Amino acid sequence: MRFDLEVIPHWIKPGSRVLDLGCGDGELLQKLQNDKQVNGLGIEIDEEQITACIGKGLNIVEQDLNKGLANFQDDSFDIVVMAHALQTLHDPHVVIDEMLRVGKECIVTFPNFAHWSCRLHLNTKGRMPVSKFMPYSWYDTPNIHFCTVKDFEVLCAENAIKVLSSTVVSHDSSESFLGALLPNLFGVTAVYHISR
Which of 123, 164, 170, 183 is deepest in the core (most CB within 10 A)? Predict the structure, then answer.
């Protein structure tokens, strides 16, 4: 399991109502149901991933996040999670607003495109980096908005979003001293727990 997905359960109370946006194959949702006894619902658009979720016995809705969350009422969930999908959305700020409308609290994870290795690669090679962590070329990547830790914090400040907790994960899938000290430079993946 990706380390950002291992961090998320620490911020979720047992028995919570959880909405997992872009839930993929349901790995996180299944862990939350098994370990935290959450009442969970996943949203996914990819048919193969939906089939995997159904095979695990998870509640899943096929839905395009770019079309919003109008089918959910205000405060329908205790926690709304969106792991590694923010950068793929057409209007990520609109989806974050919708997350905060339907959930009392939210958890968002995203790749930090200001990590030192990305900066070095761009500076020395003059090309967008391709790595095990981000294995796409610039022309076939699902990532359409490249966000950094600082960018996300500015978005939160401009939109009166409270950051309850945050951490970054390094290449070796752990939290590090340098990541805590300089998250925008040493964090590969950012993990934010937010609310209004």
Answer: 183
Beta bridge mates, 17: 39
pLDDT tens digits, 52-107:
999 999 999 999 999 999 999 999 999 999 998 988 898 999 999 999 999 999 99
Domain boundaries, the chain: 3-113+144-195
- The CATH label, of 3.40.50.2300, 3.40.50.150, 3.90.1150.10, 3.30.420.40, for the domain at 3-113+144-195 is 3.40.50.150
Distance between first and last Cα of the chain: 29
CA distances from residue 2 to 7, 180, 188 in whole angstroms, order as listed: 9, 19, 12
Quick: pLDDT tens for 167-187.
Answer: 888 755 555 666 666 676 777
User: From the CB of residue 4, how many other CB atoms can be counted at a distance below 10 Å?
Assistant: 23
